Amino acid sequence: MTDGVRGITDNLEYWQSLRAQASAGQLHVEPDVARQCDRVCADYLVNLSGQLELTQTLSSPESFGDLPSAQMLGAKFHRLAVGEEGSARFAIKQQIEIIKTMREFFQQYFASVEATDADTAAAVEALSPPR
């Protein structure tokens, strides 16, 4: 695994860990900060989706010509644009996965806070004298 892929994997695992902590109620984030981060993540996902679509237009191996060296160069550019590991398309897909995990963390946090608020409100209501 290359250092770039390992770094992305570490980043994904980090956010998965935070998502699990939020699910367990072990993590606190200021609500306004969480909302702003979630909004930025949503916007970034739109941007990344557009970039992912553009990768299809990054390469046309056939446009390099008929010479064997041109064919090899075209194949290399195609691999760098839309190939498997190490291509622009691959990197964008990994970023999308990380950002989706970040959003899942924030959504999990919002659900946890709402559940805690509802439980607290119910407990306070149960302890309050009748009106």
Structural overview:
76% of the residues lie in helices and 0% in strands. The protein has helices at 3-23, 31-54, 68-82, 88-127. α2 packs antiparallel against α4 (88-127). The N and C termini lie far apart (66 Å). The model has no long low-confidence stretch (mean pLDDT 83).
- The percent range for strand residues is under 5%
The strand count comes to 0
N→C terminal distance: 66 Å
Task: Name the overall outline.
Answer: rod-shaped
Q: How many helices? A: 4
Radius of gyration: 23 Å
- Binned, the helix content reads over 70%
Provide a quick synopsis of the model.
The chain has 131 residues and is mostly helical.
Describe the structure using short key phrases.
131 residues; mainly alpha; 4 helices
Q: What is the topology?
A:
Elements: H1 3-23, H2 31-54, H3 68-82, H4 88-127
